[in-house]
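Whiteboard transcription, Tuesday session. T.W. wrote the structure tokens on the left side:
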């Protein structure tokens, strides 16, 4: 119950609290057990079985994770191996197609070179040379012919 203030004196009494008595500390054991095997804590059989099944489940999950990783590597290997086999199978066909295309390009380049040479000769022959330079030009043409013949023989 709450304490009531004394009205005659004009001052209030301080509230007091009850304090629980202190308990004495338990005496410490002074004797030690000899060092050796500690007695194993005995678990009930059901708890032990649950712990074992948990360990088995964890072990199986780890094995499955390892197998998943191996499966991924196996699929990647199979995929790459099939692509390589396909590439090996198609490589000779591709090679032959590239050879044919190269031959065609060479024929086209030879034709273009002949056409350009013919056109250049025509343009050079159509140039009107003043009489004063005619002798020098003729000597130059002979030198070009000789050089052209030498190149043809060397090739």
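and on the right, the sequence the group agreed on:
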């Amino acid at each position: 119950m709450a304490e009531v203030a004394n009205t005659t004196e004009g001052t209030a009494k301080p509230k007091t609290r009850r304090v629980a008595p202190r308990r004495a500390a338990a005496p410490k054991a002074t004797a030690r057990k000899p060092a050796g095997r500690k007695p194993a804590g005995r678990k009930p059989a059901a708890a032990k079985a649950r712990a074992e099944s948990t360990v088995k489940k964890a072990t199986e999950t780890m094995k499955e994770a390892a197998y998943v990783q191996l499966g991924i590597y196996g699929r990647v290997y199979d995929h790459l191996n099939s692509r390589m086999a396909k590439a090996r199978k198609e490589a000779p066909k591709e090679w032959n197609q590239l050879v044919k295309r190269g031959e065609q390009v060479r024929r086209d380049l030879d034709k273009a070179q002949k056409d350009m040479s013919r056109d250049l000769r025509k343009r050079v022959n159509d140039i009107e040379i003043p009489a004063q330079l005619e002798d020098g030009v003729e000597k130059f043409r002979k030198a070009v012919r000789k050089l052209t013949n030498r190149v043809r023989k060397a090739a």
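Someone added at the bottom: Residues 101 and 133 are 47 Å apart (CA to CA).
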